[in-house]
Design brief:
- By secondary structure, the protein is α+β, with helices and mostly antiparallel strands.
- It has 2 domains: 3-40 and 70-291, no CATH class; 297-470, no CATH class.
- Helices cover 14% and strands 31% of the residues.
- It is built from 8 helices and 21 strands.
- The strands form 4 sheets. Strands 1, 2, 8, 10, 12, 13, 14, 15 and 16 form a 9-stranded antiparallel sheet that branches.
- α4 (309-319) crosses α8 (423-441).
- The longest helix has 19 residues, at 423-441.
- The radius of gyration is 27 Å and the shape is elongated.
- The model is unreliable at 1-8, 13-54 and 449-454 (pLDDT under 50).
Amino acid sequence: MAARAVGTGSRRFTVGVIIAAACALTACGGGGSDETAAAEDVDVSEAAVDRADVTDAQAAAASGIPRGGEHPCGSDNEFATVTGANNDYESSLVNRHVDCRVGLSNYLTVYEYTRPDPNSGYIETRVGTARVKTQVSAHGPANRLAKRYEIRIQVAEFTPDPNYTGRNPRPVLKFRPRVACTSGYNNSTAQKCTYTAPDVVASTASVGKWGAAQAFDVAFSWTKDPNTKSDWEEFLVDIFNFYYTQNGTPYEAPLNPGGPPIYNDVGSGLGQPPRLRCDKGVAHSGSNGCVFPDAAAVYPLSRSDTTLSEAAQHIYEAQNNPDPAARSPGKFKLKAGTRAIAADEVRGINALQRAKSERVQEKNRDRSCGASNSLIETRLPKKQSASCAAGSVPCSCDEYPFASTWNGGFFNPDRTSVKRINDAHNKKAGSAQLTNWYRYERVVDHTFADDQPRGQPLVPGKGDDFWVFVM
């Protein structure tokens, strides 16, 4: 690599350095196929799963859950400062659809190129040194194999060169993100990130003021390995560096006529990106999409919602049972100092794991509510809501954890709660709306398999934990 240090943190390099996206392909395991559940014909509606009253990241964190929605961050306080640590994502993730971060670049040297004599080469003059601050919001719908990256930059520091005597002592700078895409974690092939990086400008005359935001889409593609059961891949989208120059001039410095192009480059300070997992029909049959799987999947329910309040109340009671041995899993708690990361104490046996297999769901329902020796028939005293006791509404047996989990009555009867509640509330919270939410958050079964062969043990493997937050 023909490169040398320039200034205090920026670099000068020729075209021999990586310019296009780079892929470090490291194979990992896979597993699982997809099946269509009859209940999963529900259209995704963000309104049905968004926390409309907590759409600001900081306000949502204060209330105890990740904020809803796929929209980018707006206010400065929604962008988490990153430092280059491996766990930067813990502070920058807003939810499973959005990551918002801000970083401070290395020092860069601002140059001006002039050619006083047309018969001679260009002269390089130092204008000053600078550092820039960059905000990046990665966001977008969960049903696309793509994410949008919105970037804006401000000059955070500028020190004029005392020897500069040119005509433009406070130039406008332009930057182009150098995007590197790493993938290959599921033995797939032909992984590709497709994008067109924009130019982003900031003025040295307006220190501390943001320039105009620019956005670009990164689309993800891959070819499934025929030896793996499930069709998914993980990507890391790195913006570690920027090309830079004065606005209105080419990125290529005019210093090597006839030779390899020379560019100025500076570290962005944007740190380590979060993992992005994309799947084709794994989270939901016939649906493709991408999420940040390190962000917690949290299903929100409200006891004040009159269309499902009895179901929400039942889950609240189950999660807060005074007997620790009977207390149901799935109660959510944020890790301190984060906006979307589950606390350690609610992970593992205290989290829920989705089970898409109809056989698993049948076994859970039968053990909890269906058979003559089911929990609802044998557990005393029998629990029912006030409306069911009064006989004022049609009622049905509600179980928590849900039948669509590996934590239900068949697998974990001691920590499963059963109660007769309003049938309409039961169906909304535990069927249509839950199925809709599974797809929106792209919650993956721990088996990554939905139709394991009959006669063989159903064994959960890798996948997503999730939680239920009752307000």
